[in-house]
Amino acid sequence: MVATERNLNGQPNPPHTPDAPVSPSTPDSPLSSTANGSHPDSTYPHIPTSADDDPAKSPYAKFSDAEVLQLIMPGEVVTLPRRISITSIVPEDVIVDEDNVKRISKSLKGELGQLSRLSVRARIDEETGEVVYDIIDGFHRHSAMQANGAEFADADVRYGMTDKQVYDARVDATTSKAVASSRQILWAERSWAETKWGQQGIPLQQAAAAAMNDSKRIRYHSDMSLAEVEEMKAAIRAEFANWKVTPQVFYD
To answer: Which H helix or E strand runs over 119?
Structure first.
């Protein structure tokens, strides 16, 4: 039985279908505003691209976000620098350091404007059919932009990421000391919930404790064989290595 990928709101993702070839957006297309990151907005100066992230080098650069999502193959992840609409970023109830938001807000109003891109995942909203963006890295910058009334932001947009990949990337991207532990726990829990162990009802904290204590049995899951327990412990240890955090973060 194939597991159903779900978006960050818990809804099933639409299946990938091999539709007819898509032509690049034309200037008259409603999708062309995000193609090549060319929104006609002067809120902040555009962040220049380096030789390594030159969108002209990507075969997807001439397509809009919606078209890229249609064209990429299952399992393929593509990243492009774009200028995206602030209102298309999905709001989430995430803890932020208000002092940091104020500092960034002041910096954004300076001559240089936005100095680093947001990192976001693009997907199609099932209710509206429009492209929306889930923040991977940049919650403080996004909050500051909202406070400043900005309309657009430069972002590294990733296409084709699963929910689990988003959560894993968020754990890795959490750097603000004021919110690190709480955010890491939140994203790690959501990432674990996407695994087969999480889907069997084994909470992340319980799996982490089993790995830390090298347990041979899992409470409330006595039907698990020793081999399954060992497999789960190996899986949670690999997750913590990927997240670059230790299990102790859940017990500090």
So the answer is: strand 118-124
Q: What is the pLDDT of residues 123-143, one digit of tens each?
A: 999 999 999 999 999 999 999
Cα dihedral sign for 45, 50, 51, 57? Answer: negative
pLDDT tens digits, 158-181: 999 999 999 999 988 775 555 556
**Confidence check: pLDDT of 60 > 50:** yes
In three-state form (DSSP H/G/I as H, E/B as E, the rest C), the secondary structure along 29-55 is: CCCCCCHHHCCCCCCCCCCCCCCCCCH
User: 18: closest CA among 63, 62, 73, 57?
Assistant: 73
Q: Does the CA dihedral 170-173-177-178 come out positive or negative?
A: negative
Highest mean pLDDT out of 3-7, 115-119, 158-162: 158-162
Comparing 165 with 58, the larger pLDDT belongs to: 165
Residue 196 neighbours by CB distance under 10 Å: 11
Distance set, CA 223 to CA 19, 201, 205 (Å): 45, 13, 19
Quick one: how far is CA 187 from the chain centroid? 10
Q: Among residues 109, 95, 100, which one has the least CA distance to residue 180?
A: 95
Inter-helix orientation angle 180-193/163-173, to 10°: 160
Residue holding tokens 């960034």?
A: 104
- 85, β-bridge pairs: 152
